[in-house]
Amino acid sequence: KLTSLDLQPVITPKVVQGRVHLKCAYSRPFSKPPLQYVVVWSRQSTPGKKEQIQRDTTLQSFSYIEMNGVNLKLGDTVFCTVTAFTRDTPEQQSLPEESKGFYAGIKFLPESLQIAEDDKEHILTVLSTVPIACPGHDDSCKITLQLSTEDLDSQLPGPPDIALSACQVDLLQVPCSESSCAAATLTVTAVTDFARDGNRISRIRAEPVGRRDLLWRAYTPKDVKVTVRDLPTGNCYSFTDPHIITFDGWCYDNYKIGTFLLCRSTSRVFEVHVRQWDCGGHRSATACNCGVAVQ
């Protein structure tokens, strides 16, 4: 057998005649007679298992495979394995060398988030590892992703604990570099819900919209798991005739009639006014909350 030739196969995405392809390129050692190569394309079917989808025999130092949405789809992890031999002695082959797995599709970075109800914005990058092909002149070279959130803890009431800065993002066609052929960013913030509901898990889902080609139409990217750490929040109250409990737990009564400033923030434009009317009649001088205004 031939020894290991250090072929170092690498997969990169390419657009060929308006369609998305993957290219397996490898080094070409000098040899007389010249070497030929067997390139086996495979994809990961289940964890730890691969299935062959194409086999090429070529004199070139590269091989192409089309992502047609049928035998090779977005969301697949693809490998190419290269073996060299000479035409005179095809039974003497080099040791097969396999490329790193290439994930073809949409990626979120980071793949999961752990955030807290502290009003901080967290940047989420969404990118495509394959180029955005434009087969027709009327098609804009972009992929539009519709974003949605869902609470995975269905036993708790209320909406998800996260808010996004955008409902959809556009991935515009750019030259591929460093495993990214198109990218966009958005921010994720934990919703301060004033509820002691423990740590909750939500997910962000992205769905391509408006594409007519089979490759993108039948594809749903992986969800992003977001764990929100619950933080205690302060509360103040004004109730019945009215008794008042402040943020720091101090209690007192305010039986007066009129409009009052209940609370005001010292760090942002936020204040609450309450209006109290006479509700005791002739029997007792008692005031009750009848209105509230919030800025």
TrEMBL record:
Keywords: Disulfide bond, Signal. Residues 234-295 form the VWFD domain. The gene is Vwde_5. InterPro entries: Dev_Signal_Modulators, Ig_VWDE, VWF_type-D. Pfam families: Ig_VWDE. This is VWDE protein. It comes from Podargus strigoides (Tawny frogmouth). It comes from the Eukaryota. Coiled coil: none annotated. One of its GO terms (cellular component) is extracellular region. GO terms for molecular function: signaling receptor binding.
